[in-house]
């Protein structure tokens, strides 16, 4: 066998296995229904929901144990909008939650009488979103998980008869005698008979409205039928009680299927024989053919012929039923998207006319085709720019039929960065110090947010107290919340005040944002200018370069950026990297710290000048004012007035005697290191070590040079202690904060040269 034959056979086998599924009998369909009821009984709304959940998954809540969680989860939409897409769409966290919530409501509630309009400014990616969504819907419907069924009739010639058998024989006998002169063979007469009678045993009549096979059961018999068919289990309870299955008992089959059913029942007088002519076949959605998915652009002109039919099929139906008036095989283009998706790309030009035409269809679920009423139970989707709303304002009764879903510019900084990576390559991260690339995204997003947030100001009464971390408009804080992250720099009392109600109010403000500022196209152009100018210059892009770009090189962009935002972003960055360097530099003897704290807890209970053995450490302590000051320097800092020290000792002694010893240790049985007082003192001790950790190094001029020479031969010339400290610092920055060696060196030099330790000394 040649390679060509092998390739063709393999291709044929794969296509047969994956793409060709023959229609199944109604009995076979019912067997499938009882085996997999949840998958088999699905209309387009349920299928659409299953498709979204299949590609998106359940999502992740970073705060699952928080009693004030609002289920604002992180959905991974890459499989839905990015993978295998020629033009990926990046959905930020806000839009992903909005979309999933609408789809869940669509499945749970009343599914008809709505058109879902995705509204957003030009450049927000609406068209890309809808194209990718429909592509994945079509793809999913051709998988085993997305399999749904539609009705196809096979009108049995043996049951209905095309001609009476004796009429055929008499006709052929006369034909044979007339054509003896042509010496017609017996085989040719047999072939003529087969041609006349028809080589197929049935006439196949597909339902143009893609009716689900369960709708072929007479409406008033469905509840009793399903009661007999299903055992009493969870699905049966859902089928009879959940609103998502209302359609099973409410919807009617199309007029063609209904007419066929009654005509056949009148003819054969046996419902079992009628159902033997009903088959179920997989419903294949095909956008290009307009089967199940129809998409219209504003420039697409309306069809000249609104009534569609199949004259050849109509003739065959008439011949079998011997009554041309019983079944009329006519339908409109809306039938092709019944139980499918009807989509309008932008409400303007001809699409504005189509939207108005949908008014009655959406209201009643019906469409008139000549004198026949056609069922239209479709998922109606549309895209709209805000300025095009005038197209529907003339029809106030239409307003309650429209569900608007905002699709604004990106307001999640992680998604904005992901767009840069997709367009320019993931290697762009290698050109930036950590957090600088995300800060670029923060500048872009700041132009898309409203400068005043009533929800944030109601929560954070005094924004000034967060001036080290945030701007005066609290936009930096809002961006963090939009990404699903609650900053650690929030005070404990404000963290507790972030109730579910407040958090929902903050998130809800996103509905009024993202329609102004730098568009998606603008941000890509701006980033391209920035990246081309500063990347790959032998030095990683830092915050100073970022700030200079927006304030000096591209001054034309400054008016769009909120006043003071870049300064606040710089301050936030400086404070954050200072803490990272401190965190990476300090190391301490945990055992020694624990002994110091236990000794202090014990010593504050005795008079000065006494000598006592600490019952927690076993050390013999000479309790003096100097002894306590040495320990307090780690707990309070070096420069603390004596009054504050004495007050702190008194507070510590009071908590020790009234709570730590008498309640936590004696009653609850905790060890000294498990008490609240110990944990509080430990936190103070560690904090003060970190705050002062840079002081001795900043006074050493060799320290900066050693950082610059790290990982070079010159580094070996420094004394062992400096080499050990610098190596420890560089490695920690890499392990804890994902700095490269070059990045760690540059951020350390940045901290030292900008004297950040002194800048935030009193913070």
Structural class of the helices, strands and pairings? alpha/beta
Spatial order of strands in the largest sheet: 6-9-12-2-13
Enumerate the spans where pLDDT stays under 50 for 5 or more consecutive residues: 162-168, 193-198
Question: Beta fraction of the residues?
Answer: 5-15%
Description of the molecule:
Helix 4 (44-56) runs antiparallel to helix 6 (93-108), helix 4 (44-56) crosses helix 7 (126-141) and helix 29 crosses helix 31. By secondary structure, this protein is an alpha/beta fold. A hairpin with a 2-residue loop joins strand 10 and strand 11 (372-375). The longest helix has 24 residues, at 642-665. Helices cover 51% and strands 8% of the residues. The protein has a 5-stranded parallel β-sheet with strand order 6-9-12-2-13, with helices on both faces. It has 36 helices and 15 strands. Among the domains are: 163-197; 413-557, no CATH class; 590-692, no CATH class.
Reconstruct the topology from this structure.
Blueprint: H1 3-18, E1 24-25, H2 26-35, H3 37-40, H4 44-56, H5 78-81, H6 93-108, E2 115-119, H7 126-141, E3 149-156, H8 157-160, H9 165-178, H10 186-197, E4 202-206, H11 222-229, H12 234-241, H13 246-250, H14 255-268, H15 271-275, E5 278-282, E6 293-296, E7 308-309, H16 311-321, E8 330-331, E9 341-344, H17 350-364, E10 366-369, E11 372-375, E12 379-384, H18 390-393, E13 402-406, H19 413-424, H20 436-446, H21 454-459, H22 475-482, H23 492-497, H24 500-508, H25 520-534, H26 543-553, H27 565-585, H28 590-603, E14 611-613, E15 620-622, H29 625-636, H30 642-665, H31 676-692, H32 695-698, H33 701-708, H34 720-737, H35 741-753, H36 756-759
Parallel strand pairs: 2-12, 2-13, 6-9, 9-12
Antiparallel strand pairs: 1-5, 3-4, 3-5, 7-8, 10-11, 14-15
Helix pairs in contact: 4-6, 4-7, 19-20, 20-27, 26-27, 27-34, 28-31, 29-31, 33-34
